[in-house]
């Protein structure tokens, strides 16, 4: 049976209107998760429109598969990470005799289901193994990373990926616990962070768990590769829609797309363009944010920033 509580998608209307230009085109949702956005996209497509639904997490693909079953052959599923998108998705797009994807959607981060499932190790509210891998068939679980990492590297990781000012104290507490053989679960990690007596415990926990999750899943590298691959995979007029939930993600999207939107690479001191580089993308709007009503109904929407780009040449 479908589980409607799997994950509440954010800014659904903004996603469908920003993404869909040609209802008969081939679309790619690279973060299908629980299939909420995917379902809205499929509802907006015409009879020959198609959605390629991707995720690196097999559990997400299973869940989305159940939810999207009523759409039959209009949707196909593919387990792949952003870093293998270019090789994995291009043949599927060609199978539909399309010159490229009409739209690509990425709703970044983890789903509520991944967070709520204690055994995945993403949640500091529940006790579970320190895993945090989106795809448990590859990579190293967080517990292994924490067993091996030098304290100075952990400080940097928490500071860079969690933007946590007290990274030094927290990393020290984590390493002490580890050296005492007391670090294997999310509760152990929570205890280590709490022992540094942060003023806002939940905020520090959120930042530390985010930092580890980003490191374990190589999220920022993945995102950077995603932006490059999408620019290639899109057809002319195709749309790229990205929803970011923290400034590290949003910055990557914005800075990687900026030169494609600007085109010209001449130094600013030149009075006129001599490079002749044309913009290859148009930014369709500034970053959009959720309405107050949506944030009240779905607090995850509070930090969402949605950017839309259209391929010009
Ligand atoms: C916020 S959820 C998407 C929720 C989805 N939009 C919905 O409506 O249910 C993000 C999903 O992206 C997947 N994901 C995150 N990074 C990924 C990557 N680098 N490659 C592939 N999938 C990724 C996660 O496994 C997760 O299922």
Model description:
By secondary structure, the protein is α/β, with parallel strands linked by helices. It has 2 domains: 12-112 and 219-311, Rossmann fold (3-Layer(aba) Sandwich); 135-216, Putative methyltransferase TM0872, insert domain (DNA polymerase, domain 1, Orthogonal Bundle), CATH 1.10.150.170. Helix content is 44%, strand content 14%. It contains 13 helices and 7 strands. A 7-stranded mixed sheet has the order 3-2-1-4-5-7-6, with helices on both faces. S-adenosylmethionine binds next to helix 2.
List the helices and strands and how they pair.
Elements: H1 12-19, E1 26-29, H2 36-44, E2 50-55, H3 58-67, E3 75-79, H4 85-95, E4 101-107, H5 112-116, H6 142-148, H7 151-162, H8 167-179, H9 186-194, H10 201-216, H11 219-233, E5 234-244, H12 247-262, E6 281-283, H13 292-297, E7 305-311
Parallel strand pairs: 1-2, 1-4, 2-3, 4-5
Antiparallel strand pairs: 5-7, 6-7
Helix pairs in contact: 1-2, 4-11, 7-8, 7-10, 8-9, 11-12
Bound molecules: S-adenosylmethionine.
